[in-house]
Specification:
With 186 residues, the chain is α+β, with helices and mostly antiparallel strands. The chain contains five helices and seven strands; from the N terminus they run E-H-H-E-H-E-E-H-E-H-E-E.
Amino acid sequence: MKHYAIEVFFDQAFATYVRELWRQCDRHNLSSFMNQVEGTEPHIALALYENIDLESISKKFKEFASKDLVSFELVFDAVAIFPTSNVTFLQPNVKPELVDLMINIHDYFGDFRNQCNVYYSPDRWFPHVTVAKNNTSEERRETVEFIMNRFNPQATRVERLVLVEIEYVDGNVMCRNIESKILENT
């Protein structure tokens, strides 16, 4: 089954920082999940659509991406968890530019509202960059401690808006960038 996400990607320095956290978590046997997702990049998902065809969402994405979209800065200065899913993540400051972009996407993609995953709807969305996904709460505790000992607040620029295809095959997750829009610098 394929899902489609609308995500923002970051400047190279922050992407490298996050990838290194993924590698370190994998290397220290804390969480291999993000390091093994084929084709993924450090990102914040703004919307996640299920049971939708590629042609429809790709067409809508191209229309939305034809607008003037501007790059903006985010600061990641918190490490947090989703306890029910054992996900450890970096949390950014919530700037109006990020929230406005997310809301504008959901308004523009309103025809697909019923196919949007509830956790990525405007009422439930919590912006984050996943660092680790653990199987147990004990692994999660160890992962949080490990990351906290290596964490430094990071400033980055949101540079691209991307439509990503996510496919689950034989227990593996594979991502493929379908469409991309480079955000304009101001």
